[in-house]
Amino acid sequence: MLYDFLKNVSINNDWVFEYSRSDYQNLYGGMDNGKVHLFVDPITIDSSFSDSGYETKTYTGKYMLLVSSDIDEGYKDKFDNNIRPLITNSNQFVKDSILCSDYQINKFQTMEVINLFDFNLDGVLVTYSITITK
User: Fold this and answer.
1) What is the reported pLDDT for 79?
2) Between the CA atoms of 23, 25, 26 and 31, what dihedral angle is there, to the nearest 10 degrees?
3) If DSSP codes are grouped into helix, strand and coil, which group holds residue 90?
4) Which residues are paired to 58 by β-bridges?
5) Long-range contacts made by residues 8-11, C-beta under 8 angstroms, separation at least 24?
């Protein structure tokens, strides 16, 4: 299941993992300023069936890779210090891990986010569609 996959990626990288709706994510109180936070929204599972009854599952949803930020920084500094490293390192690691597994990426859209939630987080929001290939 994709939930377990993302949780294991988070654990293996010593990231903070939070699985919940965004309104609950905003209430999250355990910010660790020195760590990447992986916030995963509830995952939608779409099943399709072949004529012989073989099931194919496609997982769709969103996740965010975030770091604590200073609300007073300018956008260029936020991008250089917080967003760019998440795009080139952490998010690339997630993408590479998916590609090396039994999943096929159908969609992987990344958008920058700044000053998110009550505790000012910067990072990336990823919208994905992933199908199990086995």
Assistant:
1) 96
2) 170
3) helix
4) 46, 131
5) 9/38, 9/93, 9/94, 9/97, 10/38
Residues of the chain short of pLDDT 50, as ranges, are none
pLDDT score at 30? 65
DSSP string, 9-25: HHHHTT-EEEES-HHHH
β-pair partners for 131: 58, 104
pLDDT of residue 22: 82
pLDDT tens, residue by residue, 103-126:
999 999 999 999 887 778 899 999
Amino acid residing at 55: E
What is the number of alpha carbons within 13 Å of residue 97 lying toward its C-beta?
Answer: 16
Judged on CB neighbours under 10 Å (0-12, 13-18, 19+), 15 is: buried
Read off the pTM.
Answer: 0.90
Tokens at 39, concatenated: 């916030």
> Mutual orientation of helices 92-99 and 2-12 as an angle, nearest 10°?
130
